[in-house]
Amino acid sequence: MMTQKLFESILNSFPTRRVAVLGDMMLDVYLWGRVNRISPEAPVPIVNIQKRTSCLGGAANVMRNIATLGASSYAYGVVGDDATAEEVYRELNACRIDVAGVGRDPARRTTEKRRVIAGSQQLFREDYEDLFPVDDALRRKLVDGIVGRIRAGELDAVIFEDYNKGVLAEWMLEEIVAAARAAGIVTALDPKPGSMRPVRNLTVMKPNRSEAFALAGVADRNPDLPPLTDPVLAEVAAKLLEEWAPEYLLISLASQGMALFQANRPPQVIPTRAREVFDVSGAGDTVTATFALALVSGATPEEAAELANRAAGVVVAKVGTVPIHLDELRSALNGSNLRNS
C-alpha cells in the first residue's frame, strides 16, 4: 500500500515544478436562478437569474489546476479580441498564471460556455465559439514559445488540451514532443476524437472511456463490465498503445475509477475515490493536471494515477468547474486509509 509519507513527499515537490499548457482556452459562465413559472409564450420554464459567476474552462482550467496545486503554470493558447478574452485574462492573472504565451486573434470569438442553472439543475447551455483553424503563423508562435522554454530548461512538463476548437494541429504536437523527448520532459495529451491523426511518443495520453473507444473506432456495447474482465476495453487500449505509442495510457472510467495501461505490462485499475458526485465538469482537467505534476515530482505512474483519482474525487463533489487546491488534496489524503509510514 502507498504511504502517507510517500504522497507527502510528492506533494511537497509540486511548488518547484513548471508546466506549460497548450490548447483550446475558454470561459465557463454560470447564470444561477430560480424557476417559479412556465412561460406563456412556449412550454419552457422562466428562469429568474439571481447571479452570474465565471471561471476558466477547457485548457485554461488545466492551467488553473496546475496553479492551484502550487506549481508554476504557463498558458499557451488563443483568445479573441473581445470582452470574454478580457475576462479570461483577469482570471488567469488572478491565479498567477503566466500569460505571455496567449495570442489574440481578432478574427475569432473567445470560446464561452454559458450555463443556466436553477437550484442545482442545469437547464441548458449556450456555446459562443468559432471552430475554424487558428492561423498557422499564430500557431508557429505558440510552438516556438514552448520549444524555446524547453531548450532553455524552463519546463518540467507540457500538457496538450484538445477540445477541437481550432488551436491544435498534429505538426505542433510532433515538434514539441520531439523537443521534449530530447530534453527528458513529460508530455501529456487530453485528446478529442476526430481532431487529429495519431501523434506518437507522448509520455501519457488521457482519454475518458467514450473518447478512447471513439479514437480506436470501436463500439462500446458493454460499458458496465469490470475493467479487468472487459475484453473490448483491453482491445481498445492495445490499439491506442500501438497507434499512438504513449508511454502510459490512462483511461478515465467514471464510477469505475481509471485504468492505467502500458505496453507489455498488465493493466492497473484504480477504483474511484469520490464519495459524492454532484458535477463531473472539469474532472478530466484535474486528472490530467494532477497526473502530470505527480509524474514530474517523482511519482511512479501508479502513484500518479492514485493521486489524480483522489483529486478528481474532491472536485466532483462540488457544483461547477472547480480546480483542486494543494491543501484540499492533502486533506483528502489525510482522511484516507493510507499507512503513515
SSE inventory with pairings:
Layout: H1 4-13, E1 18-23, E2 25-38, E3 45-58, H2 59-68, E4 72-79, H3 83-94, E5 98-104, E6 111-118, E7 121-128, H4 136-151, E8 157-161, H5 170-183, E9 186-190, E10 204-205, H6 209-216, H7 231-244, E11 248-252, E12 258-262, E13 265-270, H8 283-295, H9 301-315, H10 326-334
Parallel strand pairs: 1-4, 1-8, 2-6, 4-5, 8-9, 9-10, 10-11
Antiparallel strand pairs: 2-3, 6-7, 11-12, 12-13
Helix pairs in contact: 1-10, 2-8, 4-5, 6-7, 8-9, 9-10
Model description:
The structure is a single chain. This protein is α/β, with parallel strands linked by helices and 341 residues long. It contains 10 helices and 13 strands. The chain has one domain: 3-Layer(aba) Sandwich (UDP-N-acetylmuramoyl-L-alanine:D-glutamate ligase), CATH 3.40.1190. The chain has helices spanning 4-13, 59-68, 83-94, 136-151, 170-183, 209-216, 231-244, 283-295, 301-315, 326-334, and strands at 18-23, 25-38, 45-58, 72-79, 98-104, 111-118, 121-128, 157-161, 186-190, 204-205, 248-252, 258-262, 265-270. Helix 1 (4-13) runs antiparallel to helix 10 (326-334), helix 2 (59-68) crosses helix 8 (283-295) and helix 8 runs antiparallel to helix 9 (301-315).
Short description:
Helix content is 35%, strand content 27%.
Keywords:
single chain, 341 residues, alpha/beta, UDP-N-acetylmuramoyl-L-alanine:D-glutamate ligase, 4-stranded mixed β-sheet, 10 helices, 13 strands, globular
Indicate the CATH class. Alpha Beta
Strand content: 25-35%
Indicate the low-confidence ranges by residue numbers.
Answer: none
Strand order of the largest sheet: 5-4-1-8-9-10-11-12-13
How many strands? 13
Mean pLDDT reading: 92
Distance between the termini: 10 Å
**CATH fold-level label:** UDP-N-acetylmuramoyl-L-alanine:D-glutamate ligase
> How large is the count of helical segments?
10
Largest sheet: 9 strands, mixed
The CATH architecture can be named as 3-Layer(aba) Sandwich
Structural class computed from helices and strand pairing: alpha/beta
Using the alpha-carbon principal axes, give the shape. globular
